[in-house]
Amino acid sequence: MKKYLNLFDFSQKVNYKTEVLSGLTVAMALVPEAIAFALIAGLSPLTGLYAAFVMGLVTSVLGGRPGMISGATGAVAVVLVALAKSHGVEYIFATVILAGVLQMAAGFLRLGKLMRLVPHPVIFGFVNGLAIIIFMSQLDQFKTAEGAWLSGTPLYILLGLVFLTMVMIWGLPKLSKAVPASLIAILTIFGLVVFFDIDTRTIGDIASIEGGFPPFHIPTVPFSLETLGLIFPYAAIVAGVGLIESLLTLNIIDEITETRGRGNKEAIAQGTANVLSGLFSGMGGCAMIGQSLINTSNGARARLSGIVAAVMLLVFIMFGSGLIERMPMAALTGLMIMVALGTFEWASLRTFRRMPKSDVLVMVLVTLVTVFLHNLALAVLVGVIISALVFAWDNAKRIRARKYIDEEGVKHYEIYGPLFFGSITMFNEKFDVLNDPDEVVIDFKESRVVDMSAIEALNKITERYHKVGKKVHLKHLSRDCRRLLSNADKIIEVNVLEDPTYKVVVDKI
């Protein structure tokens, strides 16, 4: 159990001071984010804070990626806002519970491995888009409650405090890493504001965070097919968006820490957390890339930091609301701007002239969809589809045929490249049915029959030769290709030429 939780196993080289201090820093950064996302969804601030506590605690204990932070997120809030306005908070709780069940099912079905299909340009675009969103969301702090830009003394005070926070976060690690620089920066700005009685916006100006322990509450909605039909589309989108954002964040943290998380385990943990969040009056959520990067940049690598962050967030709600509400937003704004600058893949800009144009297009498109639509699932889906189409097109152009006639007058077509739906047109153009001799051999030693479209292409080409009284043999088919043809033997009829001197290589898919 100790090894599983990675909390008190002293063989794991866990820096407990770093874990605790980083967790405290993350807890402070969670407060304004959770409040803001709850307000976006049209819910009370405590709904977001409770979700951050439950999501953070459960995923830290059970998740597949130590050091990753989960909580209430904007991606989930955007999905739920329409349902909250039309049917109220009880339907939100029910939707979050159902989304959690769907996520758990995805984990048990081991669908986390589907993240292998996400190409690197998509991840670059996703990360850059999130960095831009994090930065742009901080611009609201430079506006008044009416939406006008600050000016004069309030603007200069805010800019000064934000700049001082950023300088401290950047410079302190060069002097010492004994205490997370972000925590020192937040406490220093807090002390300056209190000591000099500086008039600047605080967390309390956004909303009160005072509350008790999250109350257990079964959603009071009609248990009927009509209710299920209403909430299921929202739950499916929440589950999909949550898993995509969580598993992509997991991959990013994997790269930073040079370790490997477990995607399916994380999916089950995310689902469990959302079920409990809905039962304990939370709006649900998923992994938070900003807070996760704060945590890892502080040096946290174990589960303890996430647990401390969740527990301290609850302590703030129950006992420390008066103190936390006095926390200046300037300090948290500076912290999140530094997170945005650190999140952006600046190296991706240098690859524009070195990467294939299709990859650059995918990266830019994913970034734009993420930034302007705030729909992370759609952005990733668009990127994967375009990448898949480009891959299919490139492979379709690679099919070749080497032609020759042997001493017995038999014409041979040696096929190179995969035969699949994208390459069948070019495959058909390789053959000269009318002018070929009476016997033809199609050799697949350097090719593979991949899908049903390829089988149908073989059927068509054999039919064309049969109509003019000529015979076709298929040679050097691998076992998986023969299996495809065998399964389709009632649909097509082809003559497979046995070659006892050829050892079939079994391809592993």
What distinguishing features does this structure have?
509 residues, alpha/beta, five-stranded mixed sheet, two-stranded antiparallel ribbon, 20 helices, 60% helix, disordered N terminus
Describe, in plain words, how this protein is organized in 3D.
The chain has 509 residues and is α/β, with parallel strands linked by helices. It has helices at residues 2-5, 16-40, 45-62, 74-87, 89-108, 120-138, 152-175, 181-195, 203-206, 225-257, 263-279, 289-297, 304-318, 321-324, 329-343, 357-373, 376-396, 424-428, 452-467, 479-487; strands at 70-71, 286-287, 400-405, 411-419, 439-449, 471-475, 496-497. It has a five-stranded mixed β-sheet with strand order 3-4-5-6-7. The protein has a two-stranded antiparallel ribbon with strand order 1-2. Helix 18 (424-428) links the parallel strand 4 (411-419) and strand 5. Helix 2 runs antiparallel to helix 12 and helix 6 (120-138) runs parallel beside helix 16. The longest helix is centred in the middle third of the chain and has 33 residues, at 225-257.
